[in-house]
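Protocol step 4 of 6: structure prediction from sequence.
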Amino acid sequence: MSRKTASASAESGQKESDPEDAGLENAEGKSAQRQAENALSESEEEAAGAGTEYRIVMVGDVLLHTPVEESCRKPDGSYDYDSLFTHTKDEISAADLALVNQEVIIGGSELGISGYPCFNADFSLCDTLVRTGFNVICHATNHAMDKGRAGLVSCAQHWKEQYPQVTILGIHDTPDTATSCGADPVIIDLPELRIAVLNYTYGTNGIALPKDMPYAVDLLNEEQVAADLCRAEELADFTIVCPHWGTEYRLIPDASQEKWVQVFLENGADLVLGTHPHVIEPVEWVTDPENGHEMLVYYSLGNFVNWTSGTGEGVANRMVGGMAEITIAKNEAGEAEITDYGVRPLVSHVTAGLGGVTTYFLEDYSKELESANEITLQDPDFSLEYCINLCDSIWGELWRKNMPLE
């Protein structure tokens, strides 16, 4: 009964009533008043949630080739990866949700630290990622099985034991967290906003999953992805998909990416943050013609950090990455929507020696840094101007929107 209805009922009772009737009438009136006040309170809460903005950032592949690992190895043989994030940490830690594509498995030194082709990083990388401000780690990559069962299990257990507050996606040491075994998608609760985050890879470089652990890595399987997205739509206000997909070193989406975009779109995803090609790719909105649903797609964020052993044309492309920046909020109807978005270019800066590998925002990169970057020995095309032109050709004005170069 609404307050207005209760008031009208009381006014319509003109004749004198006995005490029992009066008591019942009074109780009904108080009950209706409480219901109305509760309804107003819920409405006020919804209004408070509407307009509250949340900032999401994601960076691409933390790709630890041997020279990168060596730059992080201290004289005593231990590892410290903090230098990789020195110039980006403040922006990352300021986000409400900070995601990273952890390209290589973090299996610990006991399994042997290694670079290409079968990577493995020291556990201290977990410490660095958390100190940097990342609270969502995407582990579904083609390198997830590089150290076999031992590496994957060691990585997953270390995260759970040392940093239970951090959300780990894409790998599972037990079936209870895998959607393929009936678990719900991961939901991150922010004040007045629930975000589902899904992470998949196209494969694991031909390394088979353990026969008794078919759930170990979340793979791009259309039936499973559709089911996960359907469930995410039931549980969350906003859904992010982080696919490890595409063709390495290709600057435009391939047919498989275009196919998966349609799968994500048709099943209600709101934001796609792609990785794997090791180079940047375009950002675009796509719309479902059936219902008008819109989805923002970052096809590839490229490498966050990279020092490839390759030489020649195209190596310079791998030194440029991007940090996706997305702002979401609930509108007056209580629906979550993207209110702003952009991309902030990154440059891998590599020099020999301890702490010699780090990543800068492009707007902070200089001609002096360019001349010191040893990648010029591997690809003479690399320059500050080359990085700017690459970002212009792939992202157009989008990357200049909020951070124009002076």
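Step 5 (inspection) to follow. Residues 173 and 202 are 19 Å apart (CA to CA).
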